[in-house]
Amino acid sequence: MQRNSISIYVQGIGSVGRNFLSILADEGKLISERTGMDIVLGGATDRTGSVIFSKPVAPADLLKAKLSGNILSLGKEVTSREMTENEGGILVDMSSASRDGSRELQMYLSAMKNGMDIVTANKSPLANHWKQIMDNASAGRRMVLYEATVAGGVPLFSLLGGSCGPSTVNEFRGIVSLTANFVLKQMREGKTFMDAVAEAQKRGIAETNFRDDTDGLDGARKTVILANALFGKNMTLKDIKTSGVSESTDAKGMDRYRLIAEITRSGNEVHAFSGLRNLDDGDYLLSLGEMSLGYEVNTSRNGRLRIHSVSDGPGETAAAVMNDVMLLAKEKFQGKC
Amino acid sequence: MQRNSISIYVQGIGSVGRNFLSILADEGKLISERTGMDIVLGGATDRTGSVIFSKPVAPADLLKAKLSGNILSLGKEVTSREMTENEGGILVDMSSASRDGSRELQMYLSAMKNGMDIVTANKSPLANHWKQIMDNASAGRRMVLYEATVAGGVPLFSLLGGSCGPSTVNEFRGIVSLTANFVLKQMREGKTFMDAVAEAQKRGIAETNFRDDTDGLDGARKTVILANALFGKNMTLKDIKTSGVSESTDAKGMDRYRLIAEITRSGNEVHAFSGLRNLDDGDYLLSLGEMSLGYEVNTSRNGRLRIHSVSDGPGETAAAVMNDVMLLAKEKFQGKC
């Protein structure tokens, strides 16, 4: 029997991308059973270029080729534009964010025009070009899923969409970025800013280019996405102040400060805040550990819910990306007559 | 344009049922937009009998008729069997549990045979007849959703199914029943068992017939459903010990005791426990308030997640039932060609 299958085109094979491929390698059978679809690698892009596979490549083989630095040997080298010309496929964007998101914007628009759906872990295009991307998706009846863009592996958009169906979100408060809060905690305990960053890098939390995270740009991007996705706004980064931690932060006495995202609705007004806040004793967000991400959400019908992960990293983020791929695969499977 | 619609047949209009109808009355437009389907009341059953509506009845009108005690005046009175003969409809079971679940079993089997899908908040049929119900659903390609059977309004089955796609559940620990833990807390604070029960009833937590909750039968039913749904078992109530609180419980020194459900997998073995446990300091479950339900789940790919509601009641449970109805409606909408 011919099985149903769907091809995915992987953009970026960094730590999230490698974890994603490991999950596909190890859990391929389970994923097929649960979605009714075989997830097939159709192509990949890394720093060396883009490649389309003439016959399906096993995830483990792509991982192996990545480690030896020659993914281009697995198929036909193509331009980045040709990667977006695969009708019926899913573009899975786990690449590093560009500053203004315009590289990714062009990629998404081209992919959707060519009949592809999008799964992304990349915040910049959504924080900078939300309306254009979503308007295009809506007009072309294409899907854009982005679970992994906010709060790592903690279920968020899929939870509110799939478990809180009859609800409107009235308030969101969360610790959605690890690095800034981890660095602040280390500074409270006596480390200098740069030593704290080095510790975060050692723990695999902070990237080499850590400033986007510590300055609060990362948190601001996530806050924009939250305001747009959960509160129906059309914000961009320009609409929100960015604040974070740096060499000049005096961490003494900041025991209850956290870098949080907070969005509230009152009447027709939506207020979005991203930055350091002095939390009250007993605040749920203070109970989260240094490796935790989590949030509290007040819904109109499903109550006030609190959720966090005990420890978040690229493995959990990759699982969130895979969950989006599976949601799309299930929809496509059900759509078949 | 003819809109797509799906008919639901409501079994039981107690406190969950009334909240369900209120949600449908207030959020009908939102629900239609999100699912692509109008949810239409096709019939209802309460203690006075069953009625099929010859033309759609507004949720607010059914609520009004319920309050004045004459839902039968809204349409044609039918037998309980005729309520299960509505092909393409959804049977929404919010009725009180029968002791052995056999009344509900017969209802579900008949409904599925007649082309209906099932949404249920009723634990007894699933705790007593899981395999027979699920085998029938599978053979007839019918859906049985049961989010509201465990942990009230806290997303659980829909979260693990919709947000943790690539994962296997390796451990589940939760406070999934309010009453027994609330009563135990009141007893710790000096109340007698019966005074504690009275307080729970005053707060709308305990039912008139409270023994199923305090004895631990309710917790045991939920534990069986969890073991079956999340760990692939085919347990029934006979496979699990039931324990709880009663007049003979000495609550002194039980500060860290909670009635919990705990299920663990080690290799091919699955261990299910329902009852009082002395929790360690720092246990997440100890952080839950007296009106909270919640759980901690260890997944193979999506990390260790913790989620709780701040305050759970019939409104949140009804929202969970509605979410299941919406998931079914969405599937039916996507299946249309």
Detailed description of the structure:
The structure is a homodimer. The first copy, chain A, has two domains: about 5-155 and about 315-335, 3-Layer(aba) Sandwich (Rossmann fold); about 165-310, 2-Layer Sandwich (Dihydrodipicolinate Reductase, domain 2). Helix content of chain A is about 40%, strand content about 20%. In chain A, helix 1 (about 15-35) packs parallel to helix 10. Chain A is globular. Chain A is of the alpha/beta class and about 325 residues long. In chain A, the strands form two sheets. The first copy, chain A, has a seven-stranded mixed sheet with strand order 4-3-2-1-5-6-7, with helices on both faces. In chain A, strands 10-9-8-11-12 form a five-stranded antiparallel sheet. At the A-B interface, helix 1, helix 5, strand 12 and helix 10 of A face helix 1, helix 5, strand 12 and helix 10 of B. Strand 12 (about 305-310) of chain A pairs antiparallel with strand 12 (about 305-310) of chain B, so a sheet runs across the interface.
In short, what is this structure?
With 337 residues, chain A is of the alpha/beta class. In chain A, 38% of the residues lie in helices and 21% in strands. Chain A contains ten helices and twelve strands.
